[in-house]
Amino acid sequence: KEAAQQQKLANVVILATGGTIAGAGASAANSATYQAAKLGIDKLIAGVPELQDLANVRGEQVMQIASESIGNDDLLKLGKRVAELADSKDVDGIVITHGTDTLEETAYFLNLVEKTDKPIIVVGSMRPGTAMSADGMLNLYNAVAVASSKDARGKGVLVTMNDEIQSGRDVSKAVNIKTEAFKSQWGPLGMVVEGKSYFFRLPAKRHTVNSEFDIKTISKLPAVDIAYGYGNVTDTAYKALAQGGAKAIIHAGTGNGSVSSRVVPALQELRKEGVQIIRSSHVNQGGFVLRNAEQPDDKNDWVVAHDLNPQKARILAMVAMTKTQDSKELQRIFWEY
Ligand SMILES: NC(=O)C[C@H](N)C(=O)O
């Protein structure tokens, strides 16, 4: 009977990368003071025995780091492992446990480059498992529930935090410390309650099987960096990033992605030298940058990131620039993804 039950369940692989979901503090009162990336995947799975009621679950430790330290090589390594698993007939869904600081970047990256309609869920926690009211157990349970659900297929990479199912493209960490940390200006796609997924919306932008990008053909990501806009800003950081080898600079601009008159000449000059300039907005609750609104982008040959925040714009620029160095193509890609 047990064997029959196992056969009916979906096969889900959990790829562990570290983060607070694998973190540990000195006492149960330590919800914010702890070390990330301490527990291995076997301990995480053993900590939630109910996972085995949802799916046949197995784990793999891909890396063990806090997500603020994830680099481009880590993204590529994770992305390639996800693709191998997605190609396997024995795998129905994939969960990635991840620190929350750059979770939105990894989720968007996978959303762009994984050619599969199998569910891929990225999940983290705001409190370590040793804390009172730790959120990791339920977030992980929800992630496995969504990964084993047929309803989650073809919806792009998803994120399960705080009972919500979010699109990996749209979601970002909007609050820290609190467990209701992840928000999207376009709203969640659904909810997961007691191991069941409920979807209410679909992502509108190109992703996974409909994406023109494929992790299998990407072996290196170009250098793309971010510089922040604020009152009294100078062009020092922009010039330094270009000198450091940046092929594109994401301008994390004020308001509509506006650019200070003190910075405009340097960005015009850098563009002439071949560096792509991409205007985004650093406003907290969701930016929306349009071409030729605050700056004459056509004249300057700059690109706008539309609703993508600066860190997501960096991910898309890197992926896009594995294929094109043309600013018009880049802009087309920023509208479509
Ligand atoms: N809540 C977390 O996971 C934060 C941690 N710094 C990380 O991103 O790994």
TrEMBL record:
Q: Where is the active site?
A: 20, 100
The record's annotation in InterPro entries points to: AsnASE_II, Asp/glu_Ase-like_sf, Asparaginase/glutaminase-like, Asparaginase/glutaminase_AS1, Asparaginase/glutaminase_AS2, Asparaginase_C, L-asparaginase_C, L-asparaginase_N
Q: Which Pfam families match?
A: Asparaginase (PF00710), Asparaginase_C (PF17763)
* Keywords in alphabetical order: Hydrolase, Signal
Q: Does the keyword Hydrolase apply?
A: yes
Give the similarity note: Belongs to the asparaginase 1 family.
In Swiss-Prot or TrEMBL terms, this protein is called Asparaginase
Which source organism does the UniProt entry give? Pseudomonas carassii
